[in-house]
TrEMBL record:
Organism (species): Micromonospora terminaliae
Record has Transcription as a keyword: yes
Lineage top rank: taxon: Bacteria
Keyword field: DNA-binding, Transcription, Transcription regulation
InterPro entries named in the record: CBASS_pafABC_assoc_protein, DeoR_HTH, HTH_11, PafC-like, Tscrpt_reg_HTH_DeoR_CS, WCX_dom, WH-like_DNA-bd_sf, WH_DNA-bd_sf
Keyword Metal-binding: no
Domain HTH deoR-type residues, every copy: 11-66
Gene Ontology terms for molecular function: DNA binding; DNA-binding transcription factor activity
Name listed for the protein in its UniProt record: WYL domain-containing protein
């Protein structure tokens, strides 16, 4: 293939500029676009045809109020952002990834990773400075370093090894991993990765990481568990000394609305029942939480929890049968 000539480069730049103008405003007249681009209305008509050939639905209206308008297409077209728009978009996505927008964290991080691939270096410092000047109040996730989050997102995308310092029972240790997916829960960010030193899949809380870095060493992806399921099961049950399973007589959607995703795994059994798996420091604690859901339930596992149910029932029955003392006599 030969190199593009100066005329071809000029035409390409002009067509991209035209696309950007059509994205900025609802309707442009031909003379307005010609004046903006310094060309004739005939050239504008040819450039509009070029955009249509590329799949952009550019509509043309006649008469008063008519002009060129970019309509909705079957696929989202590339967005052309100036420097200020790119900075504002990146900072907004960082806020969404941090949990400021309910339910948008994972999508915000995916979009931020795409923007990061093409964001000019000169704008990265502005994004970092502006993101660091934004605070929030109230509940939400523990604060996560946006740079660490982006480093891990890039490592997952590029399939390169990552390293970070992580606390454990014996102190803080350096972990070497093959990062697979970042998972957002209702409370925290987690990284599902293959731990190279332990030769097993592990989930890590991003807010506990320090010294996050990515290597240039690429790895071949290995068969991985479902990221969201693996992290949720680990957070809800595997990390606790006691794990319990219940058959709850209520639809899974109803029970999911009552229990945070980080507290239990809810699996549908049929339209009217579901299985709830949860963990805690004591079996009584798990039992009380399921009891307070307000649905009939059965204990599936462990067997000793059935005895705890009978003991709790006797205690509640005894508490309900005690006669309240009357008023004190003078």
């Amino acid at each position: 293939m030969g190199r593009a000539t100066g005329d071809e480069r000029g035409t390409t730049e002009r067509v991209l500029t035209l696309l950007g103008l059509l994205q900025q405003r609802q309707v442009w007249t031909g003379p307005e676009l010609a004046d903006r681009l310094g060309v004739t209305p005939r050239t504008i008509r040819r450039d509009v045809e070029r955009l249509r050939t590329l799949g952009y639905p550019v509509h043309a209206g006649q008469g008063v109020g008519g002009g060129y308008r970019l309509g909705p297409g079957r696929a989202l077209p590339p967005l052309l952002l100036d420097d200020e728009e790119a900075i504002a978009t990146a900072v907004s996505l960082l806020a969404g990834a941090g949990g400021a927008v309910a339910g948008a964290a994972d999508a915000a991080l995916r979009a931020l990773a795409k923007l990061d691939r093409v964001l000019p270096t000169r704008l990265r410092h502005d994004v970092r400075a502006l993101a660091g000047s934004v605070e929030s109040f109230g509940g939400g996730r523990p604060p996560v370093d946006p740079e660490a989050l982006m480093t891990l997102a890039r490592a997952c995308r590029d399939e390169v090894e990552a390293g970070f310092d992580y606390p454990s029972g014996s102190g803080v240790r350096r972990r070497r991993v093959e990062p697979y997916r970042l998972v957002a829960s209702d409370r925290r960010w987690y990284l599902l990765a293959y731990d190279l030193d332990r030769a097993d899949w592990r989930s890590f809380r991003v807010d506990r990481m320090t010294g996050v870095s990515a290597r240039t060493w690429r790895f071949r992806p290995r068969p991985a568990p479902d990221a969201a399921t693996h992290v949720q099961e680990g957070v809800a049950s595997r990390v606790y000394p006691h794990r319990a399973r219940f058959l709850v007589h209520a639809p899974a959607d109803t029970v999911r609305a009552q229990i945070p995703a980080s507290a239990a795994v809810v699996r549908p059994r049929d339209g009217e029942r579901c299985e709830v798996v949860s963990g805690a420091g004591s079996l009584d604690f798990v039992l009380m939480h399921v009891l307070l859901l307000g649905h009939d339930f059965e204990v599936l596992d462990p067997p000793e929890l059935r005895g705890r149910c009978r003991a709790l029932a006797e205690r509640l029955r005894a508490a309900g049968s005690v006669t309240a003392p009357g008023p004190a006599q003078p």
